[in-house]
Design goal:
alpha/beta, 17% strand
Length: 470
């Protein structure tokens, strides 16, 4: 690809390719989306190693797992869905829906997920007959260049325009901003400033919010089982995932048992206020932004920076915190395998502490609940302003879609108005379609009954939510 090409020239090429693809068949759109997912799946080891080498974050084994699991899950979830022509009919209302592409998608790629995020966004874009242009993070330029070359080669094999997939070669804030202004729709995955810029571009944007997943362990669950799941979620890919558990609340009667289980399964518990303070200063110097040097590093590397000695093979550094919210920086999002732990007296009080942390950072994203009591799960879901509640699973590996749940498989997680986002679900191909709705006159017209429409329905006491026993 010509490095001298301007953003304007790239967008022009993308528009030409998309116009050729706009009336492709469902089979062609599916073939393109499948090829994007399959090529990442087939080259998982190479791409995972490239991602770790270039970004200097995460670990190869977990990225290989992600490069195999996520493409398979995404393709499985979209392969039989209609995205071309008439996609829905309502015979009773005499309407039907026609799917149409949006045009050129600007996909803003984070350094924390430089392989599967572009794969996911490209698959969704091509499934809906759009074109896509990637704007990579400066630490992921080589990853994006390699993916663009691979994706274009797959499109050429299908006799489809290669320019359906392009990427910025000259990476800068100005070029990314220019791309966002020129595209038809933006999918922005990255920091708060980047997402804000996407929403300020003047074009429709699908951005994500800040993660700070709160986790609560109910008294009625197996502590060892919950500890294992939390450890998996928190340690996966060195804690880079925005869905990773950040602070866990455990009933005060089970705190000691929980800590023992965590230690037995690979966590290191920080002892003493001095060591805890070292960890605070290492992660958040002066109480400010997270130290970039710890992002995506493993537990041993983080410990070394903090001057702590941990056993070889430590998966997670665990630290008990005395407070929540803005009074404790370790209750913020920590993009490395460090987990804050705090006891709670009652489930309702534990949930209230989760809410306080979310109000400080992470509102709109996700929580994890380990409980065998559906009423408690429902209570936490009602009280917490989040888009996802992940029950009895490792949040870090499940909230973006998993074989263990029914969440939509994706790499882009909306946080709703709570997180200053335009959507509150898991991004999928449906978000990149325009819909033309066709309506015929009803065979029989009707008006609401003026005597009955304003009547108040009786109150059903079973619909009233009770907090008893929480």
């Amino acid at each position: 690809m010509d490095r001298a090409l301007t953003v304007e020239a790239l967008v022009a090429r993308s528009q030409v390719a998309q116009a050729q693809f706009a009336f492709a068949s469902q089979q062609q759109a599916d073939a393109a989306a499948r090829a994007i997912c399959k090529v990442v799946y087939d080259n998982a080891a190479t791409l995972a190693a490239l991602a770790v080498t270039e970004t200097r974050m995460g670990n190869v084994a977990d990225k290989i797992s992600k490069c195999r699991m996520k493409p398979a899950l995404i393709w499985q979830s979209i392969k039989d869905k209609k995205s071309v022509g008439v996609i829905a009919r309502n015979d009773a209302r005499r309407t039907f829906d026609i799917a149409k592409p949006m045009g050129v998608v600007a996909s803003i790629i984070p350094a924390t997920n430089p392989i599967v995020t572009p794969m996911s966004n490209a698959a969704f874009a091509l499934k809906t007959r759009n074109a896509v242009i990637f704007a990579p993070h400066p630490r992921a330029v080589d990853c994006t260049r390699r993916l663009v070359a691979m994706f274009r080669a797959e499109l050429e094999k299908l006799a489809l325009p290669a320019d359906l997939v392009l990427g910025l070669e000259s990476v800068s804030i100005d070029n990314s901003a220019q791309l966002m202004s020129a595209a038809d729709v933006i999918v922005a995955t990255g920091g708060a400033n980047l997402v804000k810029a996407a929403y300020s571009s003047g074009k429709p944007a699908l951005g994500v919010g800040v993660g700070n997943v709160q986790c609560i362990v109910d008294r009625d669950v197996d502590v060892a089982d919950a500890a294992g799941k939390i450890l998996l979620g928190r340690s996966f890919d060195n804690g880079l995932i925005c869905l990773s558990e950040q602070t866990v609340f455990v009933h005060q009667s089970q705190l000691s048992a929980f800590i023992r289980e965590m230690e037995k399964q690979g966590a290191y518990s920080v002892n003493g206020t001095e060591h805890a303070q070292r960890l605070r200063e290492t992660l958040f110097p002066g109480g400010g932004a997270i130290n970039r040097d710890v992002v995506g590093q493993n537990a041993e590397q983080v410990a070394a920076r903090a001057g702590l000695e941990v056993p070889r093979g430590t998966r997670v550094i665990m630290v008990q915190v005395p407070e929540v919210g803005p009074r404790e920086v370790l209750c913020r999002e920590k993009m490395c395998p460090v987990l804050a732990v705090m006891p709670y007296p009652t489930f309702a009080e534990g949930v209230a502490m989760m809410v306080e942390n979310l109000n400080c950072e992470g509102k709109g994203h996700s929580i994890a609940v380990h409980s065998a009591t559906p009423a408690n799960v429902e209570y936490a879901a009602i009280q917490c302003a989040v888009s996802r509640v992940i029950v009895n699973q490792p949040a870090g590996t499940s909230g973006g879609g998993s074989p263990t749940n029914g969440f939509t498989a994706t790499t882009t997680l909306g946080c709703g108005s709570w997180g200053n986002n335009s959507f509150s679900g898991n991004l999928s191909f449906e978000h990149l379609m325009n819909i033309t709705r066709v309506g015929y006159p009803l065979q029989q017209s009707w008006l609401p009954d003026p005597d009955g429409i304003w009547c108040q329905p009786p109150v059903d006491e079973h619909d009233i939510f009770h907090m008893e026993g929480i």
